[in-house]
Write a sequence for this structure.
């Protein structure tokens, strides 16, 4: 801890120097690392690493980095830079393997990566370093690679989307009851990134949530072909609004769609975090993935000498899926109570998001469906996913694979990248 | 009045001493800024940067490989630069070479023995890179088009082509990446020499460096392109076919870029993406320029830039600083180096009398 003390003293000296903003930051960092250094781990102590595609300036990576730091502190891993290491700006190529190998050599026994394209390189490292555990978020190959030290993780974000859809449905119902629109005009709009299972699963669960409140609801979907493109997302949302959509949601990472809604005064159900501060009139609620429960469980498993799940799916029940603050100014009355009720029902299993009684494909109820669960070059359905009256999303692997086009949702375009 | 006057040639020893002195000064300034902005001890930060580059054998080898890759692209640009043909298309030529390599690995991976496949990949990527450079060279030679803009535009064309093929070969579908090519068969992967993944690229580029040095300084073609660079009219007068030299030099420049693309795809990354060249085509311009287009000095300038980059990554991990902090330090150092070049070539004269100005302007 000598080195740490020295750093802290230097940081304090910096505060006396007249560099206001940076000094305040150093002070905050100082407080954080000080408290972490005080608490020693109860069980075995391990070093852990995190590989990120970008740095904290990206909202996507920030979500992982924040959760990772919090989890390391909570689990008493130690201090950043010594006991837990974060490598930022690691592209989806051999540099990811190099970063993983360097973390292994630095003594890490557990290594996480946050981007889909890191997967092959994490697998490469997992094969070379069997004594180290590798955990990859959003990946699809752990269940077919069958390596004892390679794991995938995702969250049942469709539960969060469903709840967000319920909030949207309540808003639509309020508009119908007030006579602002008629029930046949209850059309929502959705701005998606790509026409992939992850996005399809997301918008379908959102739609089903709204449909559980307003059975007549329909939805138009448009795709931008990018995870982050503010002008395109804004344009997409505006196009949907001009096409008669009275409520917008999105699955892309910029402020484009929420901003378009605020400009046009159309209610918006957001994603990844609250957008209330920039959209106070129109933001209703948002759903997000919280990675902390997974990080804590994996760290706990390694220190306790237990196995990590091959495919981990965080749920509402594990607090991996969360709703952010509800904006009372925009949401319909009674939304908070209704959300609480549906959340309990989802947790208890009495409500299933993809209940086959609640949707049809080409006018018919779906009784059997083979989804493309295994990542192989064939790109065709390989696993029966409908049983007991519902689509079993995220059960045969953690990443979503619901990719049916259900009735009531109209795709204005498609974009596969 | 302040005005700028060209110096007489500074003795090489003195010029080198000034350059080394200025790097030391730049490091001191970086240290002061580090201390003020972050409150960290600059000595610790420098130690961490060294740790990041040489902290373990693997780190040192990764650094060596990255230096070799950057150097390879810099070597490629040098013959064109010596000819005063500003080839800013290194990025696109590397991508073209990489795309050709990846295409061979994917389409021919299971159709021929590995040695034959690598030979085909070599020919394909060298030809693709050469073609990408020869197109602007042809237009320059025939129609005197602006090569700076033309080569730059070719980068965008190459990027879009790669983006297209990434989707064609996407694996798994929907990922937007093609993952590791031939991960199980390793077909088309450059061989691992002596159990070390990184050493082959270093050896190949070392040979290339020596070859380029000899070509530029001791071959007739190397002399011709220097003459064209100094003065196309002189070159024409002494009977050099300028058009032919331009196209030939750019074929070489592009071919070496294509080779760099193959080293990237088959030697280190084993994948293809639009960002695989990672700006090396532009960083290489700086490397070549800092080294005054001398291949041997380029080893040093590419090592400096890569060292700063790797050091930046390490301080980001160790101190939780943003990686951009390393970029700030690199920027300061480059600012000093480029400033120095100015003061080695020119001096500033403060004078009061108009008459003197007239006289001194005379010897500019």
């Amino acid at each position: 801890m000598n080195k740490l003390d020295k750093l802290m003293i230097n940081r304090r000296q910096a505060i006396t120097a007249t560099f206001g903003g940076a000094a305040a930051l150093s002070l905050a960092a100082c407080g954080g690392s000080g408290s972490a250094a005080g608490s020693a781990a109860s069980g075995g102590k391990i070093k852990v690493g995190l590989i990120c595609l970008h740095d904290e300036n990206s909202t996507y990576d920030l979500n992982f980095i924040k959760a990772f730091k919090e989890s390391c502190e909570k689990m008493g891993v130690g201090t950043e830079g010594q006991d837990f290491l974060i490598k930022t700006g690691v592209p989806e190529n051999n540099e990811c393997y190099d970063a993983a190998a360097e973390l292994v050599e630095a003594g890490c026994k557990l290594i996480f990566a946050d981007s889909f394209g890191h997967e092959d390189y994490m697998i490469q490292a997992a094969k070379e370093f069997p004594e180290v555990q590798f955990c990859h978020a959003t990946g699809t190959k752990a269940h077919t690679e069958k390596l004892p030290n390679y794991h995938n993780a995702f969250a049942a974000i469709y539960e969060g989307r469903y709840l967000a859809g319920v909030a949207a449905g309540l808003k639509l119902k309020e508009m119908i009851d007030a006579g602002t629109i008629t029930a046949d005009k209850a059309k929502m709009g959705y701005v998606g990134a790509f026409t992939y299972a992850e996005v399809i699963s997301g918008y379908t669960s959102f739609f089903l949530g709204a449909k559980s409140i307003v059975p007549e609801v329909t939805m138009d979907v448009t795709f931008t072909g990018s995870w982050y493109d503010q002008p395109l997302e804004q344009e997409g949302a505006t196009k949907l609004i001009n096409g008669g959509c009275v409520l917008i949601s999105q699955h892309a990472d910029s402020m484009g769609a929420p901003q378009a809604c605020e400009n046009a005064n159309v209610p918006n159900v957001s994603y990844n975090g609250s957008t209330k501060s920039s959209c106070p009139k129109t933001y209703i609620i948002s759903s997000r993935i919280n990675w902390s429960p997974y990080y804590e469980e994996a760290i706990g498993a390694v220190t306790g000498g237990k196995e990590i799940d091959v495919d981990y799916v965080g749920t509402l029940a594990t607090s991996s899926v969360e709703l952010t603050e509800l904006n009372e100014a925009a949401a319909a009355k009674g939304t908070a109570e209704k959300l609480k009720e549906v959340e309990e029902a989802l947790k208890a299993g009495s409500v299933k998001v993809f209940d086959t009684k609640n949707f049809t494909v080409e006018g018919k109820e779906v009784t059997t469906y083979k989804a493309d669960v295994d990542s192989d070059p064939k790109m065709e359905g390989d696993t029966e996913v409908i049983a007991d009256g519902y689509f079993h999303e995220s059960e045969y692997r953690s990443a979503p694979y619901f990719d049916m086009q259900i009735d009531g949702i109209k795709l204005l375009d498609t974009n596969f990248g | 009045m302040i005005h700028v006057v060209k110096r007489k040639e500074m003795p090489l020893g003195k010029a080198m001493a000034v350059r080394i002195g200025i790097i030391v000064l730049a490091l001191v300034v970086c240290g002061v800024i580090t201390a003020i902005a972050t409150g960290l001890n600059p000595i610790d930060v420098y130690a961490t940067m060294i740790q990041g580059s040489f902290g373990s054998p693997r780190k040192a080898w990764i650094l060596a490989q990255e230096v070799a890759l950057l150097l390879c692209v810099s070597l490629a640009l040098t013959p064109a630069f010596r000819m005063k043909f500003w080839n800013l298309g290194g990025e696109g030529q590397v991508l073209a070479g990489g795309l050709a390599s990846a295409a061979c690995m994917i389409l021919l991976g299971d159709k021929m023995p590995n040695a034959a496949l690598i030979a085909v990949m070599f020919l394909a990527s060298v030809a693709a890179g050469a073609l990408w450079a020869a197109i602007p060279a042809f237009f320059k030679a025939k129609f005197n088009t602006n090569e700076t803009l033309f080569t730059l535009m070719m980068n965008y064309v190459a990027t879009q082509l790669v983006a297209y093929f990434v989707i064609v070969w996407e694996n798994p579908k929907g990922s937007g990446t093609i993952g590791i090519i031939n991960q199980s068969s390793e077909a088309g992967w450059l061989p691992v020499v002596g159990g070390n993944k990184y050493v082959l690229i270093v050896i190949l580029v070392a040979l290339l460096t020596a070859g380029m040095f000899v070509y530029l300084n001791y071959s007739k073609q190397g002399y011709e392109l220097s003459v064209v660079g100094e003065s196309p009219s002189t070159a024409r007068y002494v009977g050099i076919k300028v058009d032919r030299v331009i196209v030939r030099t750019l074929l070489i420049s592009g071919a070496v870029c294509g080779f760099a693309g193959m080293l990237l795809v088959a030697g280190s990354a084993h994948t293809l993406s639009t960002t695989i060249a990672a700006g090396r085509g532009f960083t290489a311009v700086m490397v070549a320029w800092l080294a005054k287009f001398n291949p041997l000095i380029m080893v040093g300038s590419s090592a400096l830039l890569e060292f700063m980059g790797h050091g930046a990554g390490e301080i980001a991990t160790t101190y939780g600083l943003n990686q951009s902090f390393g970029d700030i330090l690199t920027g300061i150092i480059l600012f000093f180096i480029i400033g120095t070049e100015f003061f080695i070539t020119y001096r500033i004269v403060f004078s009061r009398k108009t008459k003197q100005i007239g006289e001194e302007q005379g010897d500019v």
Notes: Confidence is low (pLDDT under 50) at residues 357-364 of chain B. The beta strands of chain B are 2-6, 346-350. Chain B touches chain A through 40 residues (CB under 8 Å). The two ends of chain B are 16 Å apart (CA to CA).
